[in-house]
Structure prediction request, 221 residues.
Amino acid sequence: PEKRGMIDTWLDKHRSLYTAATRHDFVVSIRDGSVDLSSFKTWLGQDYLFVRGFVPFVANVLIRACKESGVTSDMEVVLGGLASLNDEIEWFKSEGSKWSVDFSTVVAQKANQEYRRFLEAMMSSEVEYSVVMTAFWAIEAVYQESFAHCLEEGNKTPAELTGACNRWGNDGFKQYCLSVKSIAERCLENASGEALAEAEDVLVRVLEHEVAFWEMSRGGQ
Ligand code: HMH
Prediction:
């Protein structure tokens, strides 16, 4: 078992926001089977665009893991994440045809644009490795926790949505998130007070962006 670090301390402090991000109505509606399929399609199109913007962010994390970490395994963990994004883009394309969502006509909504702008800001060399790793962990962990919930015992998740839930809710993805979390925790142990404050702020902002992202599935702009 992992020892308690800064991230768990911050999650306790911001518990209601973390729950809002990982137990959003949209996710709960997938789990209880009441999900509106037009909401799912909206999410699918928006998330495809998000993932296209997430790739350069993860590539930037990879470069930092190579240059700044001093620990060789960091690179391997992030490279694994980048490799699974390759599969993920293919998966999105096949889901797009399955649900007749034409990604070439999907327009990024405001919450999506704002989240992607945040990712771009995280790619600045001014942002410390520990801060970037905290953001990276939070982005992945919200999806892992959300979709794992849809697969927990007693779920009524519609069969045609279990593919999506398995993508982020599977045990391999959970282990990967734990690896990213350990990297972030190790970096935070040696971070300055200033970097710690920034990392906590970035964690909160990721959670807020995730809540706003789920909100888009309700429809409308
Ligand atoms: C909005 N957050 C959003 N989309 C994703 N695909 C991920 C996180 C991946 O973890």
